[in-house]
Structure prediction request, 152 residues.
Amino acid sequence: MPPEAGAQAHFRALESLYASAPINRLFQSRLEILEEGVARISFEVDASVHHAAGAAHGTSYFKMLDDAAFYAANSLVSDRFLLTTAFNMLFTRPIVSGPVIAEGRWVSGRRRVLVADARLIGPDGEEAARGTGTFMRSRIPLSSLKGYAPPA
Prediction:
């Protein structure tokens, strides 16, 4: 079977880049880029990410929302790594435990600054948080990043 080309190869390379990030040893999660401008991160909430009152700390909400929006945006940019320049969040309900999905979608922009939003869907299927971020092209070529490679 020939290697994936074009957009699909870029999506798989971004998924590999995500998996290679050291932070994901702390936040076990899996990224899937479904199509241009759409990213999904699956993860599990358990007591290891709880705050003192027994629900997921906002750190995990932010990380997953930012990552989902970021990768939705970077799926449209195949030459440069994007940087988050701003991110606004709204918490709507606590998550105590179970599987959670962060869904990211590109909203606008393709040149220098891109806008994407994301939402967290808790184990009950209800939205637990949402966020919107702005992302700008960096000077860092994706091809220079060790983790940016299609899986073998």
Residues 6-142 form a domain with the Thiol Ester Dehydrase; Chain A fold (CATH 3.10.129.10). The helical segments are 6-20, 58-74.
